[in-house]
Design a protein that fits this description.
The complex is a heterodimer of chains A (374) and B (151). Chain A has 374 residues and is of the alpha+beta class. Chain A has 16 helices and 10 strands. Classes of the chains: A alpha+beta (374), B alpha/beta (151). Chains A and B meet through helix 9, strand 8, strand 9, strand 10 and helix 13 of A and strand 3 and helix 3 of B.
């Protein structure tokens, strides 16, 4: 008799709080989510972050500008090259350095390769999160080919540090163009396989369509950018709105969807892979001759003032805000990281859905934890 | 709107604002008391519609603590920078803009965590990365002999 009473009170009134993470396979890093449940329904999600807070902004205040580039690698390590580029562009803008076309084109090709391998890894992990383990092998198999191209030119595979203020660390490898062309030819055949494997899958549709809806107004208010924001119809592609490097000379579409659910975010990324390949194909045969770096002063000092540069990483808009007091170290550096804003929307879009959907929604946001913690 | 029209609009809402034309953005420095009203008006005025707060940074200026708001309108694609600063280093307090832009909730928590600036009317002002035993590391007078190696 007494037992029965206890059970009914748990069912009807009590809220069940569980810790998801910090060590959980679907959070892809040390992200801890405090999930309040009522039955199987998510009532609220409170992200607890800071497990790998490394104080990058504070560290930047005591090092020089070329050194900062190596720290930005460690923020969003999957799109490390684009992070480097943001700092370099900002420094070059402040010093009013003219960058030769060769550097701009190589940077753009490398950025798009970075975006491709980032989306491949995301696709691999997203499939795995939803129970399709084959995706993981397919995604990593193809990503490996890009990492090999990186390795040949930069020496590094993920953390490239290939950019430096004034250009690139070294010239591209003689094989670079040939291998990139081979890869594009290969991947144009392979990408439809991704669709066959996951995009058309009925179970996948059931788990992603209508799940975690985000409206355009909310996306703007929460500052959600990148493919996640564009899946909600928020036109936020920095490559289109404020072209940097060689993006003003290539033709590409800004991928926009209006549904704003998990499936739209998925399709947006698949479409972006096609666009990335288009951009690379337009540039790879037209790399102009010229130096791979401009000679800079041995000690770089920015004139007093404030500088802001935004770039489009694989996950959204990365902003680098530098306040300089004229010294070789910045006075203050702020990284407006895309993942930080994208995480803040999680509670808003996951509430009301089932706990299994939380994994799908979290996967579709494509969070990289060191970029949140910095 | 171009920078001149934006400047006039800001002057009409907050006459005490100091305008400065930076290389990229128009910068408006206002006292903390008028920041919230200015932000709200810039969000709501039909010709401005700054709906996207794309960066919110806390800065220690040495004697003062300040916050910098980078705003953009996704409709008109114009941008403006608002700045405010307070000289009270013991109990710095500013108005929260969370009800205008929801992204401010996390960003203000970050500023509170690293610089110790409190935000009035913030729904959930807790530390974000660090626990309560830490000081405020982004302040210039922060000393940590153990964790920060100085040259």
């Amino acid at each position: 008799m007494q037992e029965k009473e206890i059970i009914t009170s748990t069912d009807e009134q009590q809220e069940y709080v569980i810790n998801m993470g910090p060590q959980h396979p679907s959070t892809h890093g040390v992200l801890r989510l405090l999930v309040s449940l009522k039955g199987e329904k998510v009532k609220s999600v409170q992200p607890h972050i800071g497990y790998i807070h490394s104080g990058i902004e504070k560290m930047c205040e005591s090092i020089t500008y070329p050194q900062i580039i190596h720290l930005t690698d460690r923020m969003d390590y999957i799109s490390a090259h684009i992070n480097n580029e943001a700092v370099c562009l900002n420094v070059e803008k402040a010093l009013e350095v003219d960058i030769p076309d060769r550097i701009k084109v190589i940077r753009t090709i490398m950025s798009e390769l970075t975006r491709l391998q980032s989306h491949q890894l995301w696709w691999a992990c997203f499939g795995m999160d939803l129970g399709g383990l084959t995706c993981f092998f397919y995604g990593l198999r193809d990503r490996e080919k890009i990492l090999d191209i990186f390795e040949e030119t930069c020496g590094g595979r993920m953390i490239l540090s290939y950019n430096c203020p004034g250009g690139l660390m070294y010239d591209i490898h003689p094989n670079f163009q040939k291998r990139v062309k081979e890869f594009i030819k290969y991947f144009r055949k392979i990408l439809p396989e991704y669709d066959q494997l996951l995009t058309g899958n009925v179970i996948f549709h059931e788990r992603s369509k209508g799940i975690g809806k985000l409206t355009k107004e909310d996306a703007i208010s929460f500052g959600v950018t990148g493919p996640t924001g564009r899946a909600s119809g928020f036109s936020c592609d920095v490559r289109k709105h404020e072209p940097y490097s060689a993006y003003d000379r290539v033709q590409f579409k800004e991928i926009l969807h209006t549904e704003g659910d998990t499936f739209a975010r998925y399709v947006a990324r698949i479409d972006e892979m096609w666009e990335s390949m288009n951009i690379i194909e337009q540039l790879i045969d037209n790399i102009p001759e010229g130096p791979f770096a401009v000679k800079m002063k041995p000690i770089i000092k920015l004139p007093e003032g404030e500088y802001y540069q935004r770039v489009e990483t694989a996950r959204g808009e990365l902003g680098v805000y530098i306040i300089s007091d004229g010294n070789k170290n910045p006075y203050r550096v702020k990284f407006r990281s895309p993942n930080f804003s994208n995480l803040s929307v999680l509670n808003h879009i996951a509430s009301g859905f089932k706990i299994a959907d939380l994994v799908a929604i979290g996967g579709s946001l494509d969070l990289i934890i060191p970029d949140i913690d910095r | 709107m171009d920078k001149i029209q934006l400047g006039e609009l800001i002057k009409s809402i907050a006459p005490e604002a100091e305008l400065k034309e930076g290389k990229q953005f128009l910068e408006a420095t206002v006292p903390p008391s008028s920041l919230y009203q200015l932000a709200k008006q810039l969000r709501e005025k039909e010709e401005a519609q700054f709906d996207f707060l794309f960066c919110l940074s806390g800065v220690d200026y040495g004697s003062d603590l300040g916050v910098v708001y980078h705003l953009r309108s996704t409709l008109f694609d114009h941008a403006v920078v608002l700045k405010t600063r307070t000289s009270d280093r013991e109990h710095p307090q500013l108005d929260s803009v969370t009800d205008i832009w929801q992204t401010a909730e996390f960003h203000e928590r970050e500023v509170f965590d690293l610089l110790g600036i409190k935000f009035k009317n913030h729904p959930d002002l807790r530390r974000l990365f660090l626990d309560n035993s830490w000081g405020f590391p982004l302040r210039k007078d922060y000393v940590d002999d153990i964790n920060i190696v100085t040259k």
